Amino acid sequence: MRQRRKAREVAMQVLYGLDLSQGCLPEAVDLFWQNFEAPEKVKAFSSVLVEGTWKNVQEIDALLGSCAENWSVERMSRVDRSILRMAIYELLHCHDIPPKVAINEAIDLGKLFGSENSGAFINGVLDALYAKLRAQDGEQDTETVSD
Fold first, then answer.
1. Which residue from 93, 96, 92 is spatially nearest to 132, judged by alpha carbons?
2. d(CA 87, CA 71)
3. What does the alpha-carbon distance between residue 82 and residue 112 come to, in Å, rounded to a whole number?
4. What span, in angstroms and rounded, lies between the C-alpha atoms of 13 and 32?
5. pLDDT of 20
6. Domains of the chain (ranges, CATH numbers)
7. Which of 1, 3, 18, 2 lies closest to 86 in space, CA to CA?
8. Which residues, 6 or more positions from 104, have their beta carbon under 8 angstroms from its beta carbon?
9. 28 contact partners, CB below 8 Å, separation of at least 6
10. Which long-range contacts (CB under 8 A, 24 or more apart) does 71-80 make?
11. Are 103 and 84 a contacting pair, CB within 8 Å?
12. How far are the Cα atoms of 75, 86, 123 from residue 105, in angstroms, in the given order?
């Protein structure tokens, strides 16, 4: 398994736990690593994703709510919400990751960990957000990601 994919899986699980318990970030990360092992590169990238996502969760949730038609952030499943938050963090703050990679990875995580509709739901929300971000940046690229 690719290391960045594994790191995203780890980050999603830690973010899910934080969302569930509203716990302390360092404690959640420490608890995870007390029970699981992974290569250093996986730990490093997952830490970037978890810390960045959780520290920017209010900004991310505002964007998420604005792009999830007919869904409030609170009404989303915790798994989908955790995946979407992480993907939005990547889109906004991880400029070394192509946006379509972040979106496709999130869709795949939704299919793996979410419900049978999670992949399509995540795709729709992130596609709308990506279009909104491109419009704000004045880009003319009309290509969209499809499932």
1. 92
2. 17
3. 13
4. 9
5. 87
6. 3-137 (1.10.940.10)
7. 18
8. 145
9. 14, 17, 18, 21, 50
10. 71/125, 77/114, 77/115, 77/118, 78/16, 78/19, 78/20, 79/12, 79/16, 79/110, 79/113, 79/114, 79/115, 79/118, 80/110, 80/114, 80/115, 80/118, 80/121, 80/122
11. no
12. 23, 10, 10
Q: Are 132 and 99 in contact (CB under 8 A)?
A: no
Distance CA 99, CA 145 (A): 10
pLDDT at 24: 83
Q: Which amino acid, one-letter code, is at 121? A: F
What is the structure's pLDDT at 146? 47
Residue type, 81: R
pLDDT in tens, the chain (147 residues): 589 999 999 999 999 999 988 778 888 888 888 888 889 999 999 999 999 999 999 999 999 988 887 788 888 999 999 999 999 999 999 999 999 999 999 999 999 999 999 999 999 999 999 999 888 887 544 444 444
